[in-house]
Design a protein that fits this description.
Blueprint (H helix, E strand, L loop, with lengths): L2 E3 L4 H9 L5 E2 L14 H20 L5 E11 L2 E3 L5 H11 L3 E12 L2 E13 L4 H9 L20 E5 L2 H5 L3 H10 L7
Length: about 190
């Protein structure tokens, strides 16, 4: 079966490789607009659905299995996107310092006319951080292409004092949820 990851995220690619799934990458153009009044889980489900539908159309193969995802970081209900500047990264990381925030990922799996969409929420707590260490982290360049201005799989792991939920969700793809969804589509990961 042809499997397509509708994402250019190197972290999602790495996670699918980790579970032994053979796939190709196809990145569709999808409108990622959303109603910000919706709850976080609904927003990420809505966007992942749009990505999966766009990838299914672009693939031109109705029997291909499409995997799409969208991850967002929320603090007190407000979305923290990818920082556009070092100053914005500093503001985000300062706001996360000593606090708990939510990482929500919508996952869509499609094949033929079937499309399943679910979401995962993980709570992440950062220890209090000094301004100097925040700036040192920003100078690594790591925060600039990541929602919430951090990547848990890199040096930002030093800021994390606790995680409640799926660690891989914080990286951008909840493997437990995805594994269950793939099983519902007949994909056996332990054969």
């Amino acid at each position: 079966m042809r499997v397509i990851l509708a994402s250019q995220s190197p972290r999602r690619r790495q996670l699918l490789e980790q579970i032994g799934l053979e796939f190709e990458i196809l990145v569709p153009e999808a409108d990622e607009g959303f109603d910000s009044a919706q709850p976080p889980e609904e927003i990420v489900r809505f966007i992942s659905r749009k990505k999966a539908e766009a990838a299914r159309d672009l693939a031109g193969d109705r029997e291909a299995l499409i995997i799409a995802a969208d991850t967002m970081v929320f603090l007190d209900g407000a979305r923290l996107g990818k920082p556009r500047s070092e100053a914005e990264a500093f503001a985000m990381l300062s706001a996360l310092s000593g606090r708990t925030h939510a990482v929500c990922t919508g996952v869509a799996v499609a094949r033929g006319d079937r499309l399943e969409v679910r979401s995962e929420r993980t709570e992440v707590t950062f220890r209090p951080m000094a301004e100097g260490e925040i700036w040192s982290y920003i100078r690594t360049g790591d925060p600039m292409d990541k929602a919430g201005a951090y990547g848990v799989q890199g040096k930002a792991a030093l800021f994390v004092s606790g995680i409640r939920g799926d660690y891989f969700n914080v990286m951008g793809l909840p493997l437990h949820l995805l594994g269950r969804m793939l099983g519902e589509f007949g994909v056996e990961l332990f054969d």
